[in-house]
Amino acid sequence: MTTVVTGPDSGIANTNGHYDLDPELFGQFLDPLRKYSSALYESPQDTLAQAQEHKLHYVAGRLGLTGGERLLDIGCGWGALVLFMAREYNCRTLGVSPAPRQHEYINARAAELGLTDRVDTTVGHFERLDLPARGFDAVTMLGSIVHMPDLGEVFGRARRVLRKGGSLYVSESCFRNATAREAFDRRAGTEFVRESIFGWGDLRPLSALVEGAEQAGFSVVAVDDLTEHYRRTIEDWLANVAAARDRLEKFAPGLTDQFTRYLEVANAGWGYTTKHYALVCRNSR
Amino acid sequence: MNPPTTPTDITDITRTVADIAAGEIGGGVQLAADTDLRAVQGVDSVKMLRMIAKIERAFDVELEDEDVFGISTVGGAAALVEQALRERV
Q: Which residues in chain B are closer than 8 Å to A265, comparing Cβ atoms?
């Protein structure tokens, strides 16, 4: 089932349609789950597909999932996490994102996998959704908070929808520190990614995310550095994009080069200007 | 690249750095030690970072942040590499 919530609001950023492009386009270079965020490689031999499954099990571990939890995924993409947690952990999941075509895809996949009774989606911006207070055991945000301008609103709402003792998992690409943010926020590469690819996105240093979590009343229980995993993920995507050039160009001429440029910009900065962190918080004192 | 065969003489370091920089820029570009890399057609901050990452890997050194973001010539990068190699010994 998909619910649609629309309407103007302040403090909400609209991405420019990148995520609402044909889901089949992303199928050309993502793993079979179409997870559009960092994988987690456990060995040098891991394929992208294996590493994305490792990552989802790692997220489940960080959330302490044991089976049957109610889970909210904010910025659910093509449903990799909501479908996986429903299938592997018997969770009841709700995926939220503003891109309608993602939901059509997720609903079709849920039907194929026999998961329609456990997987719901809502089209809309999390910051303005009316979700039940304390209605979830776990909340996840993988690479989505970068598109949300108001951190206080996001963390505050995330805490309100979590039961007492529930967990929040946020992984995000961050500026390495405030100095890097000042030096690079308006550079050509950063501008290209923000304006040409996403329409809106604001990398922040990890400290800004930690501050947002603290202000909302969360306890921070873990921070993991996943930078090298994202570098390798993007190397795998780049290889897939190159191999899929002919098919990608049929979606839109020039797309291969645009994706390549975006992914190369992202991978050039790791460690120098950017990091990728996972932040795990608990709704507890 | 194996550390034992890594050049430590400034002339050799400069040549290796120039090869890496030219490879990253592409198009058979000719670079002198004092060429302003940031002024070369097609070079932006992303290319500069990719170049520096390759140089650090080739010599197995980690340059200081304040130096990394200030590099503008092959000679400048080579001098920083030589210094880093000397400090490592």
A: 46
Buried b or exposed e, range A124-151, using 16+ CB within 10 angstroms: bbbbebebeeeebbbbbbbbbbbbbeeb
Cβ distance of A272 and B49 shorter than 8 Å = yes
Lookup: tokens for A162: 């979590």
ipTM of the complex: 0.74
- Taking only the tens place, the pLDDT of each residue in A57-105 is 999 999 999 999 999 999 999 999 999 999 999 999 999 999 999 999 9
Closest CA to A171 of A31, A78, A34, A75: A75
Q: What global pTM score does this model have?
A: 0.87
B62 CA: distance to closest CA in chain A (Å): 11
Task: Tell me the two tokens of residue B27.
Answer: 């198009």
Which residues of chain B, if any, have pLDDT below 50? 1-2, 4
C-beta atoms surrounding B26 within 10 Å: 9
Say how far apart CA A104 and CA A100 lie, in whole Å: 7
